[in-house]
Amino acid sequence: MAWIALGIAGILEICWAVGLKYSEGFTKPIPSILTVTAIAGSFWLLAIAMRSIPLGTAYAIWTGIGAVGAVIFGIMVLGESANIGRLVAICLILSGIVMLKLFSPS
């Protein structure tokens, strides 16, 4: 159950990162409310996951999911660069996430 909570927390982290872009510095009410809600949900689920997943593992996976998701969203939706360096970096982050999960004691 902790890993599911961590995965959903990571997805919510992507949502709030994207929401920050669309809230335009918290000047737009609806995107701002959705962003703050996603932040709260993400932190809450991360805290639940950390009850049984080691701190370093949980935090690294949470931020990794958010980072990779935000970059992919930027590339696919916002037209950001998809050069080889960025794609390799995404693969390295994903490799790290997988390795942390595989070698985690829980």
Instruction: Detail the poorly predicted runs.
Output: none
The beta-strand count equals 0
Largest sheet: none
Shape: flat
Query: What does the oligomeric state look like here?
Result: single chain
What sequence of helices (H) and strands (E) makes up the elements?
Answer: HHHH
Q: What share of the residues does DSSP label as strand, in percent?
A: under 5%
Pairing-aware structural class of the strands and helices?
mainly alpha
Instruction: Tell me the number of helical segments per DSSP (H or I, 4 or more residues long).
Output: 4
Helix content range of the residues, please? over 70%
Distance between the termini: 11 Å
Rg result: 15 Å
Mean pLDDT metric: 96
Could you give a short description of this structure?
The protein has 106 residues and is an all-alpha fold. 79% of the residues lie in helices and 0% in strands.
Please explain how this structure is put together:
- 79% of the residues lie in helices and 0% in strands.
- It has 4 helices and no strands.
- Helix 1 (2-23) runs antiparallel to helix 2, helix 1 (2-23) crosses helix 3 (55-76) and helix 3 runs antiparallel to helix 4.
- The longest helix is centred in the first third of the chain and has 22 residues, at 2-23.
- The termini are close together.
